[in-house]
Amino acid sequence: MKGEAIHIAAAGFEFDRVIAPIMMKYPAEKLILLKSDTSDIYPKANKLTENLVKKIENHPIDVQIKDTDIYSFNETFTTMIDILERYSNHKVFINISSAPKLALVAMISATFFMRERVNMKIFYVAPEEYYYPELLGELGELSEGSKTTNDNKITNLAKKLTEKGLGGGLKDITDIPIFPIQKINEIDKIIIDILDENGGVRSGNELLKLLNVRREKELQRSSLQYRLENLTKQGIIDRKKEKKGVGIELTDLGELYLKFS
Hints:
Helices cover 47% and strands 20% of the residues. The chain has 261 residues and is of the alpha/beta class. It has helices spanning 16-24, 43-57, 73-86, 101-113, 132-143, 151-164, 186-198, 204-214, 221-233, 252-260, and strands at residues 6-10, 30-35, 62-67, 91-95, 119-126, 129-130, 167-168, 172-176, 237-242, 245-250.
């Protein structure tokens, strides 16, 4: 494999789960962190993230910060595609352990999208110990006025959380399989282009006329119907009943496919 190995992860409330895989199982020369600035909304949480990122940067690895709204699917997906295209000649490890749910889905979706162009592995790290649930439990007992609450335990848990994030150590690494997705052939690509250029069409007949103008060989209506059903199942297009027929337009997924295909 040409080029250096890289890791991609979301910068959040994790330290061990980001660093440990690089040091123990999947060595790499570069770590790219997708990071959001939430200082205007959650200043204290943002400060915790900043501190953990600084600790990560102290390790002997090239750390690159990629400013990304990891709470936006489209932005995270777009950023991931850009990174994967740039490092298409590298071995890429995608660590989803530190990603919030929406970013996690976007990261995996981008990986599936680029599976045939990049040598990738997705994995999840289970820590030896989760600090956050235990801390919440102690705080819950405190709020209920429990006499058994240990103030020292709360302090120690809070310190661990500040130093290592939501969990500490590395218990196990689970590799996530990248399942194949169906390819879009040349005719389907033309259909997608036409829908994008026209902002959708009002009927299958309108689409068929535009398609046959574009192609040298005429496509039969039955063949178009089959392709539209297939594209609908894949979530690329949406068909809605209208007064004069069935309107056909690209979905958000279709627009993303068109942008990066």
